Amino acid sequence: MANYQRIDALRTSRTDWRIRAFVVKRWEETIPGADVFLHYILTDESNRKIHASVKREYFNPSFKRNLHEGEWKEIEDFVVVRKVSPFRFSEYHLEMVLVENTKIRPVENDNPPKYMKFKKLQDVFLGDICTAYPVGEHQLVGIEGPSRFEVDVDIPEVKQLRETILAKIRNEYDDESSEDS
């Protein structure tokens, strides 16, 4: 196996870095009267993310041709700079700048590790996978007559899970009610 540095080990002191990274996101930015930039969000096996960019003067056609979302790549000979923009695309305070001599190669075994695979949406929304991001709000709404549940879900993929979510909430509420009695 090749010797790769981890993203959190990158420093501004050298330019001979070699990483194995997964391309999470790619976009192009055009500033009127100025440069065109390619931007990437990259991550590695440690799940640390870093912003990478390419300015027009360093643009190499292989960047656009070879760096696609959802692929593992070996990236070598790039510059690491301190992030000066007030906008941060990752939690890391450094940014990778891909230059003319940056080499990009496919990774032989580009199957992501298990922890990098996407989870099933239903498992996330049903609470089977611990997440710090709330999906919506659920609450017991007091009305005349029997109590009812209200779930506010505006995400199209989740609307189909409404009944399953309601059933889970009812089960949790029924369990709490039986403990109180």
Describe this structure in words.
The protein is α+β, with helices and mostly antiparallel strands. It folds into 2 domains: 7-110, Beta Barrel (OB fold (Dihydrolipoamide Acetyltransferase, E2P)), CATH 2.40.50.140; 121-180, no CATH class. The chain is 19% helix and 30% strand. It contains 4 helices and 9 strands, in the order E-E-E-H-E-E-E-E-H-E-E-H-H. The strands form 2 sheets. Strands 5-6-3-2-1-4-7 form a 7-stranded mixed sheet. The chain has a two-stranded antiparallel sheet with strand order 8-9. A hairpin with a 5-residue loop joins strand 2 (36-43) and strand 3 (49-55). Mean pLDDT is 74; it is low at 131-138.
What labels describe this entry?
4 helices; alpha+beta; NA-bd_OB-fold; 19% helix; RFA1B/D_OB_1st; 9 strands; OB fold (Dihydrolipoamide Acetyltransferase, E2P); Replication protein A 70 kDa DNA-binding subunit B/D first OB fold domain-containing protein; elongated; 2 domains; 7-stranded mixed beta sheet; two-stranded antiparallel sheet; 181 residues
